[in-house]
């Protein structure tokens, strides 16, 4: 008869084998369709792989850091990187500000039809980019668009939003903020509802007004939520592709081409090694920006 310790070890080994049996299919699929392509693309970024080399993948030439050097000296990639930085530096704060304002309204300001407003604010997130593009193209038309029509009512001559290089990126930022603030709003709303009401009551008794309570109580307690929302929003905006691809195709005069869109074009041209190198440059930038956000917004003991 086996001892209780031996029985426990046997049961533990059986549980481990069962666990490995359950996760093995996922590990195989993940390795085959995710991990291996990532490793292959990293290797490809150090080669001169083009579309003609797909039939002979082992005949490519190793070029070291040449693709990365080419990316840094490519004026169009520099333009795309600056456009992406512009989009992120303006779009992320604007999206978070709109989302936080909407969350505060839904938490305290709006008392009737709250579920209706939540649904309305979140609907753009799940709406197809094609449908969004159709609506916003109508809104942003030069002569007969709704936005310029409303501006004309107050005597303002609206710009050619999608045809003027100076206004095309602000138009896309406005559209992206409208389309994406719903996700951040839902997360902010959950964070606001987790703030203890007793703290606000105590501060109110001490004479603190709504603005001071929001600044010194709500915002500090929202720091983890703000960190999560800012990181996820910045990661998405650093890879922004759909808006310029559908709305402007990178124009006018490359004023809205993004780093991801330029990388996509290089893949389409068959420059796989060069495109892979640019993809990893985008990945490094995302990692750096995320690390900076964690350093600035993380909770301090």
Give a concise summary.
This protein is mainly alpha-helical. It has helices spanning 4-44, 66-73, 75-109, 114-122, 129-139, 146-153, 165-193, 197-205, 210-221, 223-238, 242-247, 259-268, 272-297.
Describe this structure as you would to a colleague:
It is a single chain. This protein is mostly helical. Helix content is 73%, strand content 0%. The chain contains 13 helices and no strands. The chain has helices at residues 4-44, 66-73, 75-109, 114-122, 129-139, 146-153, 165-193, 197-205, 210-221, 223-238, 242-247, 259-268, 272-297. It is flat, with a radius of gyration of 25 Å. The mean pLDDT is 85.
List the helices and strands and how they pair.
Blueprint lengths: L3 H41 L21 H8 L1 H35 L4 H9 L6 H11 L6 H8 L11 H29 L3 H9 L4 H12 L1 H16 L3 H6 L11 H10 L3 H26 L4
């Amino acid at each position: 008869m086996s001892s209780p310790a031996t029985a426990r070890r046997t049961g533990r080994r059986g549980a481990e084998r069962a666990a490995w049996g359950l996760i093995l299919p996922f590990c195989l699929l993940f390795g085959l369709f995710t991990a291996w392509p990532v490793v292959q693309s990293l290797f490809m970024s150090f080669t001169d792989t083009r579309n003609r080399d797909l039939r002979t993948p082992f005949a490519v030439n190793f070029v070291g850091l040449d693709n990365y050097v080419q990316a840094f000296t490519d004026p169009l990639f520099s333009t795309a990187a600056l456009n992406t930085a512009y989009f992120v530096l303006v779009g992320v704060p604007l999206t978070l500000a709109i989302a936080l304002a909407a969350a505060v309204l839904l938490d305290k300001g709006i008392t009737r039809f709250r579920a209706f407003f939540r649904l309305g604010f979140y609907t753009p997130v799940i709406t197809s980019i094609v449908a969004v593009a159709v609506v916003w193209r109508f809104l942003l038309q030069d002569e007969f668009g709704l936005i310029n029509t409303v501006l004309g009512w107050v005597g303002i001559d609206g710009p050619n939003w999608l045809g003027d290089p100076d206004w095309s990126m602000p138009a896309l930022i406005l559209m992206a903020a409208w389309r994406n603030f719903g996700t951040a709003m839902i997360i902010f709303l959950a964070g606001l509802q987790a703030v203890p009401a007793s703290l606000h009551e105590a501060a109110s008794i001490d004479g603190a007004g709504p603005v001071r309570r929001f600044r010194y109580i709500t915002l500090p307690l929202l720091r983890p939520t703000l960190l999560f929302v800012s990181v996820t929003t910045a990661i998405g905006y650093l890879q922004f592709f759909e808006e310029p691809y559908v709305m402007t195709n990178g124009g006018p005069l490359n004023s809205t081409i993004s780093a991801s869109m330029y990388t996509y074009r290089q893949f389409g041209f068959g420059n796989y090694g060069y495109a892979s190198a640019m993809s990893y440059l985008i990945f490094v930038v995302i990692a750096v920006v995320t690390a900076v956000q964690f350093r600035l917004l993380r909770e301090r003991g």
